[in-house]
Design goal:
A: mainly alpha, about 75% helix, about 5% strand
């Protein structure tokens, strides 16, 4: 059931207008109105998304064609939007969480001189992201895909006066470009093959109907290339390295990138193309393996980080690994569900850490925190809830979504993957509570000058925290296991992903047992964290001095490895090109051509003696030659 | 009556002598005279053909040629005088003005 609904175009339009107005007239509006304008733009988008959600029936699809973009027979692409259940879920996350982050930013960025620019970028980010999820063809999706890359670059390097921030922005952009290259190749290959089968289109609906025409190896290649793009956007091995560095941006930006926009793009894209991915079991195996590896790999790194935001960054990488693991076993619905719940508690965690950083005048090192519980009560409680949620404490959002994924993985009979995911769950609980105890409990390690003016954040910042904390609990209740009260989630997404896959024939006792295993491991992780970091303990310090800890703390030296393997050879090669090849070879060719022409002309110049008799002689000789030529014939 | 090829042969010989004079001689006056010789060789051809074909066209052309030759001689002599005044010489080897 497809219907036209011109309402759709307003969802990206409002943030775009907000960004444009702030860019061109922001200075005249003043900082405060600029901020409010940006918030209002996203709020309007959220309201429209809500309206679309209310209008949409689960089996329905809304379409809205704004204009024809490319009309080159037989290929036709238009800027058109579609809203199906998956799109609506994403829209509500983007605009809803995005709105809360906007509001929070009003407080967080209140004293920043770049506030207007900041809000313009933030709006632009929401615009591109909504464009991405609303796209009804791969081309428009790609515009949004590149747009969020641009915005991440702008926002990560937001405080551009500091060189390291600019470097981090560049890193995010370049690493993403590597992934995007794969995406483009996939796009072109898909289009090429589809054209050969008489379907020159990139529309999702057309692709879906024609997907069965493709040969299996082509589908595998296309999906692998698309997944390469996803590893860049959603920070999976091997392209995850940009995300932890993205911490250089303002904290609400981190929340926006990690919860509502950028990193969800890759998961969304694979979910949107689920009809292709399910046709390629090899790709799915790769996706699952990469997801599980990323999950546990990033979790082990997070264990040894001391920067409050860096822990969260690796946590995001790890949780995204979960989502791809779910995609890899074909449980798209579970993947999107985890994306949905993760958005709440990760946004809450980031905004909470932002509140802590705000209170400590920009301090991000957890070793210089501790005992903040008394000073920041709201932050403390919301943080606790979000930490419980991400650790998978029973009845929180993270519990349901994570459990769902674990169950689906288990049901797909890949015990190794399940084991990795299960261990990750324990690690997650450990590092989250390690952070929690380091920041909020124990003796205060805050240096003296800033200790005196620790203060709870203003209400404009705490209110979003409370909303997100509530979401961290209740968002999961949309899809509880069958034996509890079930949920509306799978029914809602069924038109996009098809019926439930795993979890059909299973023993209740088995599911309960697995659940208990996970919860138990999580509780163990939290307990260990408490004993190591919650109390005054010397063990933590001794561990921190160990080699393993240093290895983890240095992120397995992957950045250094990449530096040696790619960056240094590349710069050396570029240097050689610039210093040797260009002046020697290229300039040699150019100057050589010029020099040889000059030398030749100098010798020909001698012909011009200026003597009339010589010219006449040449003239005569020429005439005779021409005569001879004609007479010969 | 003398046949046409004789005239043409004589004309060719005169023409070649003229060309040789223009290209080889070092005396600018002689060069001018050689040009005249070439023109007259051509005139001879015109007349011979006019007679042979019984047409007046060739004879008319000859008058034009003679007119132009007279004008050319005037201009040429003027140039020679002018050059001599500037250079104090009339050796064509020294007259390389066409070179920058």
């Amino acid at each position: 059931m497809t219907a036209t609904l011109t309402l759709l175009r307003y969802i990206p339009l409002f943030p775009l207008l907000g960004a444009a107005v702030n860019i061109f007239f922001g200075a005249r509006l003043g900082r405060k109105s600029a901020g409010f304008l940006a918030c209002a733009a996203v709020a309007l988008s959220f309201l429209v998304s809500l309206q679309v959600f209310l209008l949409l029936s689960p089996t329905g699809v809304f379409r809205d064609t704004v204009f024809t973009w490319i009309d080159s027979e037989p290929f036709k692409a238009s800027l058109s939007f579609q809203a199906d259940p998956l799109t609506v879920v994403m829209l509500l996350v983007i605009t809803g969480i995005g709105f809360l982050i906007h509001v929070y930013s009003l407080g967080y960025m209140a004293h920043d001189e770049g506030m207007i620019r900041y809000f313009a970028y933030l709006n632009l980010f929401v615009f591109f992201m909504s464009l991405l999820v609303l796209a009804d063809n791969l081309l428009v999706l790609f515009v949004g895909w590149e747009g969020v890359g641009l915005c991440s670059y702008l926002l990560i390097g937001f405080w551009y006066r500091d060189h390291t921030n600019t470097i981090a922005g560049n890193k995010a952009f370049i690493v993403n470009r590597i992934g995007d290259f794969g995406f483009i190749l996939g796009l072109l290959l898909l289009f090429w093959e589809m054209s050969r089968h008489g379907v020159p289109s990139l529309n999702f609906s057309d692709l879906r109907q024609a997907a069965h025409l493709l040969r299996p190896e082509i589908v595998a290649l296309v999906t692998l290339l698309f997944f390469t793009g996803a590893t860049g956007k959603s920070a999976q091995i091997p392209l995850y390295v940009w995300l932890p560095d993205a911490m250089q941006g303002p904290t609400p930006v981190s929340a926006l990138i990690h919860a509502a926009t950028m990193v969800t793009a890759g998961v969304y894209m694979t979910a949107r193309l689920n009809f292709l991915f399910t046709l390629a079991p090899e790709t799915l195996a790769v996706v699952a393996a990469i997801g599980a590896l990323t999950a546990i790999f990033a979790a082990t790194i997070a264990v040894a980080q001391n920067d409050i935001k860096r822990v969260l960054a690796y946590s995001t990488v790890s949780q995204l690994g979960y989502m791809f693991l779910a995609v890899g076993v074909g449980a798209f619905s579970a993947a999107v569900f985890h994306l949905f719940t993760h958005a709440f508690f990760k946004a809450c965690l980031f905004l909470g850490s932002g509140s802590v950083i705000h209170a400590l005048d920009g301090e991000q090192d957890m070793r210089k925190m501790g005992g903040l519980r008394r000073h920041l009560p709201v932050t403390y409680w919301t943080y606790l809830i979000a930490a419980l949620a991400i650790s998978g404490a029973p009845l929180t959002a993270g519990f349901f979504s994570k459990d769902r994924i674990l169950w689906e993985v288990y049901a797909s009979r890949s015990i190794a993957l399940w084991g990795m995911a299960w261990l990750t769950a324990g690690l997650t609980a450990f590092y989250m509570f390690r952070q929690f105890f380091m920041v909020f409990h124990g003796p205060s390690r805050v240096p003296e000058p800033s200790r005196s003016h620790i203060h709870e954040s203003p209400r404009v910042m705490t209110a979003p925290l409370i909303v997100l904390a509530l979401g961290s609990i209740f968002a999961g209740w949309l899809a509880t296991p069958e034996f509890m009260w079930g949920g509306v989630w799978d029914h809602w997404l069924q038109p996009v992903f098809g019926g439930p896959k795993a979890a059909e024939h299973h023993a209740l006792s088995e599911e309960l047992f697995l659940m208990a295993l996970t919860v138990g491991l999580g509780a163990l992780g939290a307990l260990v964290a408490y004993f190591l970091y919650g109390r005054d303990s010397k063990i933590a310090e001794r561990i921190a001095a160990g080699a393993l800890y240093r290895w983890l703390g240095n992120k397995y030296y992957v950045d250094e490895l990449y530096d040696r393997l790619f960056v240094q050879p590349f710069t050396a090669w570029s240097n050689w090109l610039a210093r040797r090849f260009d002046p020697g070879f290229i300039d040699g060719i150019v100057n050589g051509v010029a020099a040889s022409v000059r030398a030749r002309s100098l010798s020909w110049r001698r012909l011009q003696s200026g003597n009339v008799q010589h010219y006449l002689f040449a003239f005569l000789a020429g005439t005779l030659l021409i005569f001879a030529y004609f007479l010969r014939w | 009556m003398v046949p046409l090829p004789y005239y043409l042969a004589l004309s060719a010989v005169l023409f070649v002598i003229g060309v040789a004079g223009v290209v080889i001689r070092r005396n600018i006056i002689v060069i001018l005279m050689s040009i005249e010789l070439m023109l007259n060789a051509v005139n001879l051809t015109f007349i011979a053909f006019a007679r042979f074909l019984g047409s007046m066209d060739g004879q008319v052309i000859v008058f034009f040629v003679m007119t132009v030759a007279a004008a050319e001689a005037v201009v040429g002599l003027a140039i020679i005088i002018s050059v001599f005044r500037h250079r104090q010489t009339l050796d064509p080897q020294d007259m390389q003005f066409l070179r920058w």
